[in-house]
From TrEMBL:
PANTHER family: TRANSPORTER (PTHR42948). Belongs to the sodium:neurotransmitter symporter (SNF) (TC 2.A.22) family. It is found in: Membrane. This is Transporter. The lineage of its organism: Bacteria, Pseudomonadati, Pseudomonadota, Gammaproteobacteria, Oceanospirillales. The chain crosses the membrane at residues 12-30, 42-66, 90-112, 149-167, 179-201, 221-247, 259-279, 307-333, 345-370, 390-407, 428-446. It is a multi-pass membrane protein. PROSITE patterns: NA_NEUROTRAN_SYMP_1, NA_NEUROTRAN_SYMP_3. It comes from Vreelandella neptunia. Keywords: Membrane, Symport, Transmembrane, Transmembrane helix, Transport. InterPro entries: Na/ntran_symport, SNS_sf, YocR/YhdH-like. It comes from the Bacteria.
Length: 447
């Protein structure tokens, strides 16, 4: 039976919300603040912003442009565009590795989504109240060493994702982002308001925006570059898949600017919500990936109104993780739907259950299956390393190289509506600067 014509986003605003829903996730709220803390503060923030503008923006625009031209899943889009441009069919690899990467990321992203759900419940039940650092640490370690609990969180989270994606792009994604994004923004504003009341907001501002350049190292720069990639959901076929639903009349540069501003504001907002609490409670800024799970509950458990604030914070994190996870499943489902006789619902179930199974292996690596599997890494770390250090940079590099070097230059410039100066800037950045930056991340990531 012929499939219906490719659906389109009902409005530019809905598209912006969906793309921002993908970009804004654990990367912004969980990862960004702890990376700022580990990398010494404002100097990292500054370089990160530069990377977003000079590398993230052109790659985001490239992925959308490719997706909109191809009108299919990332793999078919790339092979189709390569054929029309008389380039080797091997360019399809860019699409395929993006889809595989999205599938792999979804499996362990859902595990963290499960943590977030568990912490939401803990906030409601008042588990944090009156606890000291040891108690909060024990809660986190207790969770990690309990496979049944991790499995439950992961399963509930994945079921939510499957349920939303199965309803289809218009009903599922639009409905979800319309509700989730504004709630998320509102919760952040409330938390920043609390941060202001702690008396340590100024300290947080200085920490985040007054650079101490002596803290800047080559490693910090590369960490900032890598995070710019992760936070914008680049190199995973996601933005390409979203672009395939994008109408011709949408201005890509303007839209990318809006999404990037939303993503950046949320990340900075998360920092501004978290650091005053960290400083007010004399907590360690550089405590790493555990920052929000081990440190914040301590603050929530010992402050007035901490139960409500804790609940709001982890709800916010769960919502953000959910919208990103929805976007991770989307390209995989689109691919299966177009390449097989399966309906959207069946394709979603097949992809979702597959990622869920891999996630089960990942969560077991925190407890019963903790011995290294390969290269000294367990399943969880292996999935993370393989995707973020190898697949993500290479796929994004492929997308921008193809756009800048393989597509007809005039037509790309016309599609982006560039002025004469705009054309020169675009060509310098898209042809040389951004690819060189990505290559640097990739190489340093491997050594
Ligand atoms: N951008 C999302 C975040 O910042 O949490 C995570 C993410 C989604 C990364 C999709 C990569 C990706 F392909």
């Amino acid at each position: 039976m012929a499939k219906l014509a490719h659906a389109q986003w009902s409005s530019r605003m809905t598209f912006v919300l969906a793309a921002a829903g993908s970009a804004v996730g654990l990367g912004n709220i969980w990862k960004f603040p702890y990376m700022v803390g580990e990398s010494g503060g404002a100097a990292f923030v500054f370089v990160y912003l530069l990377c977003i503008a000079l590398i993230g923006l052109p790659i985001l625009v490239s992925e959308w442009l490719l997706g909109r031209r191809g009108q299919k899943n990332p793999a078919s889009t790339m092979s189709e565009l390569a054929r029309t441009a008389n380039k080797p069919k091997a360019w399809a690899i860019v699409g395929i590795s993006g889809i595989i990467g999205a599938f792999l990321i979804l499996s362990f992203y859902s595990v963290i989504g499960g943590w977030s759900l568990y912490y939401t419940l803990n906030s409601v039940s008042g588990t944090f109240s009156g606890q000291d650092a040891d108690g909060i640490g024990a809660l986190f370690n207790g969770m990690l060493s309990n496979p049944g609990l991790l499995l439950l969180g992961h399963s509930v989270f994945m079921l939510l994702v499957i349920g939303i994606v199965a309803r289809g792009v218009t009903k599922g994604l639009e409905g979800a982002v319309r509700i989730l994004m504004p709630v998320l923004a509102l919760l952040l504003v409330v938390l920043i308001g609390y941060g202001m009341s702690t008396g340590h907001f100024g300290e947080a501002l200085t920490y985040m925006f007054n650079p101490d350049w002596s803290k800047l190292t080559a490693e910090t720069v590369l960490a900032a570059l890598g995070h710019a990639f992760f936070t914008l959901s680049l190199g995973m076929g996601i933005m390409m898949a979203y672009g395939s639903y994008l109408g011709k009349e949408i201005n890509l540069l303007q839209t990318a600017r809006t999404v990037i501003i939303m993503d950046t504001v949320i990340a900075l907002g998360a920092g501004l919500a978290i650091f005053p609490i960290v400083f007010a409670n004399n907590l360690d800024v550089a405590s790493g990936p555990g920052l929000i799970f081990v440190t914040l509950p301590l603050a929530f458990g010992n402050m007035d109104g901490g139960m409500i604030l804790g609940l709001m914070f982890f709800l916010l994190l769960t919502f953000a993780a959910l919208t990103s996870a929805i976007s991770l499943l989307e390209p995989v489902v689109e691919f299966i739907e177009e390449r097989s006789p399966l309906s959207r619902v069946m394709a979603t179930i097949v992809a979702g259950v597959g990622a869920w199974l891999l996630g089960v292996a990942a969560l077991l690596s925190f407890n019963v299956w903790s011995e290294p599997l390969m290269f000294g890494l367990g399943v969880f770390d292996l999935l993370d390393t393989l995707t973020s250090k190898i697949m993500l940079p290479l796929t994004g590099l492929g997308a921008i190289l193809f756009t800048a070097w393989c597509l007809e230059r005039d037509s790309v410039e016309a599609e982006l509506g560039l002025s004469a100066t705009g054309k020169s800037i675009w060509n310098i950045i898209a042809r040389y600067l951004a690819p060189a930056g990505v290559i640097a991340v990739f190489i340093t990531g491997l050594i």
